[in-house]
Known about the structure:
The protein is of the alpha/beta class. It has helices spanning 44-58, 70-82, 112-137, 149-160, 164-176, 207-213, 232-246, and strands at 63-68, 87-93, 190-195, 217-222.
Amino acid sequence: MAVERRRLGWPGPSDRHSRVPSDHPRPPRARPGRSTQTWGGNTMDQYADDLADLLEQLDVRDAVLVGHSTGGGEVVRYLSRHGAGRVAKAVLLGAVPPLLLKTAANPEGTPMDLFDGIRAGVAADRSQFYYDLSEAFYGFNRPGASVSEGKRREFWLQGMAAGLPAALDCVKQFSETDFTAELPKIDIPVLVVHGEDDQIVPIAASALKTVELLPQATLKVVPQAPHGLVGAFEEAFNRELLEFVKS
């Protein structure tokens, strides 16, 4: 099962998973996209509980959970909160754990004023904010990057599909949730994949720390890759994913 929360927590519908190789169901995450646009309950615990309900109702066994960005935090919270009884392996792609926010104990993190700017941008003109964000998300602002206008519009469309309360509430969840104490308790194999040039979730504050805390982690750094993997970067990840699932 591919579980993906993307765009700094503003996920799109399940169509986004169309190129992820999987025989498992691919649910749209609760509240954004095509799901019910609920006003409350937009917390990391609720994300994990929603996933637990889904796995139980479908009686999924030996799942491989794939979490991107905020979704990586959701996978970690699910495993620490509900256990790994239904899960064989996990994949954290460009994921926010252990802690994205800059603190005295986490100097590699991102300052709070950036997250305040995200909230202000979403509240004032989320349409323009999502479109502008797509540039750094996919690394299209880097010299020599092959810019896909279609991909930027897709990013905007999926962002606009998320309910406004969920989009605002999730900023606190992906930036301030500290998973440090949860990671050592995860006792299944975990593949940690991260773009070397991730401008959204910097690798020094995330993947490089996560692999030191997970008991059974394998780190794969994608050279020069951004937060959102497209083209050759996406193909490279799919190969790593398939190899890990089959191993």
